[in-house]
Design brief:
Arc Repressor Mutant, subunit A; Alpha-Beta Plaits; 2 domains; two-stranded antiparallel sheet
Length: about 160
């Protein structure tokens, strides 16, 4: 599906506030609420919009420690590890990467003891290197198409104020 400027604007509005009404988005992009609803349905059907989510302040839920875990699997343990971490509530994100590690995980835990327990369970599958997240100056970026005059320029992103 080819996206025009209005579709990109709708995506931008939704990334900033997924609870925005069709009317609110319509005012922002210059369409009626029904026209916005129709475009959003097409974006959903094309798989471009894959869901609507909320952001959670995990610290306020008692899970005040976030970490990035770099993981390298032991021989024959990669698929079992993926199956294992898929069941863990602590794992917020899992990224398969190139380089010295095969997986990067973003996890949220209650405290350092909880993190140690989690790491101990993972060591059955491979080696870990952990970095504790001290702060997150950019937690959400709004991805928008960037019309560049210079060839080779990629998409633009707009950071939400922290």
């Amino acid at each position: 599906m080819e996206l025009d400027k209005i579709s990109w604007s709708i995506l931008s509005c939704l990334q900033e506030n997924a609870r925005a009404s069709f009317a609110d988005i319509g005012r922002e992009v210059g369409l009626s609420a029904p026209a916005v609803a129709e475009r959003m349905l097409k974006l959903e059907e094309a798989g471009i919009i894959q869901g609507y989510r909320i952001e959670v302040d995990y610290e306020k839920t008692g899970y005040g420690l976030k970490a990035i875990i770099a993981f390298t699997a032991h021989s024959g343990k990669f698929i079992p590890f993926l199956n294992y971490i898929g069941k863990l509530d602590e794992v917020l994100e899992c990224h398969r990467v190139t380089g010295n590690y095969c997986i990067f995980l973003k996890v949220v835990v209650e405290n350092s003891s909880h993190l140690q327990e989690l790491l101990a369970r993972m060591m059955e599958y491979g080696e870990t290197t952990t970095s504790i997240i001290l702060s997150s100056p950019i937690t959400h970026r709004v991805f928008t198409k960037h019309e560049s005059k210079a060839k080779g320029k990629g998409p633009a992103v707009k950071a939400r104020p922290v």
